[in-house]
TrEMBL record:
Belongs to the ATP-dependent DNA ligase family. GO terms for molecular function: ATP binding; DNA ligase (ATP) activity. Pfam families: DNA_ligase_A_C (PF04679), DNA_ligase_A_M (PF01068). Its EC number is 6.5.1.1. GO terms for biological process: DNA recombination; DNA repair. It is an enzyme of class 6 (ligase). Keywords: Ligase. It catalyses: ATP + (deoxyribonucleotide)n-3'-hydroxyl + 5'-phospho-(deoxyribonucleotide)m = (deoxyribonucleotide)n+m + AMP + diphosphate. The gene is CDC9. Residues 106-238 form the ATP-dependent DNA ligase family profile domain. It comes from the Bacteria. This is DNA ligase (ATP).
Length: 324
């Protein structure tokens, strides 16, 4: 048990799918933010998918328990930062890195986040995870009084393809289909929830880096993913980060440098790669996986501080051997 009388849980996760239409599903926006479970009773506690306490990072959300009836309760949702009317994952990452209290307070006023709730796990101190999704959605609407810091994720029924196309047109990350009669399965990745993305995305481990021309600035990150318990080379990513992000990454990676290789790479990459302890995870968008075991046209989207390296499976498999 944790956070008062409520059990410590991990959120239910979705699997990837192509868009489809079905009267048995609802469709809602796939929000580009930090996943979080809100524990609400006499106060508000927000925990990440890996159980880390995010409450202190986002003080503007500390009063959410006042907006919710029938406590103790656990809500599932996403912490999202909007810039120019659209979710900004880079902006959220910037907020998440701040550790000094005065800076956190200033950032919460200047660039506030909101919590977008889309499910309820506990209500009145009792589990409602065995109820169907549509019953939980109705319960959520009864419990939550929305405000500046807390809103409900809206959804439609049946027309998944059109909804996904509308999300893409608006520059959103994608959509999620959820089966109407499905129960909530904490900590499990289930086909009850299916995510549609207009580009593919992977969370991969930073295993090394290479300098750009001139040997001073960050050129690219060397990425790996786990397959059968070992890290497998997934290629390099050298676009998507600003000069500020590149400098911050380079500073952090230098402190993690090690002498030995942390995964096998093609011979041409060995001499130019500086190896690091495989502790950092980053999100990468890409078009497809190549037959050579790498990602095609990868774009860096930010560090995933809410994920561990062990949670990063390889998306393209080719075991690189000496001489390849």
């Amino acid at each position: 048990m944790s956070d008062g009388s409520l059990p410590l849980l991990r959120p239910m996760l979705a699997v990837s799918s192509r868009p489809f239409d079905s009267a048995e599903y609802i469709y809602e926006v796939k929000w580009d933010g930090y996943r979080g479970l809100c524990y609400l009773d006499g106060n508000t506690v927000i925990r990440s998918r890996n159980l880390a306490d995010l409450t202190g990072k986002f003080p503007e959300l500390a009063g959410m328990h006042r907006k919710v009836s029938r406590k103790p309760a656990i809500l599932d949702g996403e912490i999202v930062l909007f810039e120019k009317g659209k979710p900004s994952f880079a902006g959220l990452q910037s907020r998440g890195k701040i550790s000094e209290l005065k800076s956190i307070s200033r950032a919460s006023a200047e660039r506030p986040v909101i919590f977008i709730a889309f499910d309820v796990l506990y209500c009145g101190g009792k589990s409602v995870m065995g109820l169907s999704l549509i019953e939980r959605k109705r319960l959520l609407e009864e419990m939550v009084g929305t405000g500046e810091e807390l809103v409900l994720s809206r959804y439609i029924c049946g027309e998944g393809r059109k909804f996904f196309e509308a999300c893409v047109k608006e520059g959103l990350e994608g959509a999620v289909a959820k089966k109407l009669n499905s129960v909530y399965l904490p900590g499990r990745r289930s086909a009850y929830w299916l995510k549609f993305r207009h580009t593919k995305e992977a969370d991969l481990v930073i295993c090394g880096y290479q300098y750009g021309p001139g040997g001073k600035n960050l050129g690219c990150l060397v990425l790996g993913g786990y397959h059968n318990g070992r890290l497998v080379y997934q290629g390099k990513v050298g676009t998507g980060f600003s000069s500020e992000e590149a400098n911050a990454l380079l500073e952090g990676l230098r402190r993690l440098e090690v002498a030995g290789e942390t995964l096998q790479v093609p011979r041409a990459e060995k001499s130019r790669t500086r190896w690091v302890r495989p502790l950092l995870v980053c999100a990468v968008e890409y078009l497809e996986a190549t037959a050579g075991g790498c990602l095609r046209h990868p774009v860096y989207r930010g560090l995933r501080r809410d994920k561990t390296p062990a949670e990063c499976p390889a998306v393209a498999i080719k075991v690189w051997l000496d001489g390849t």
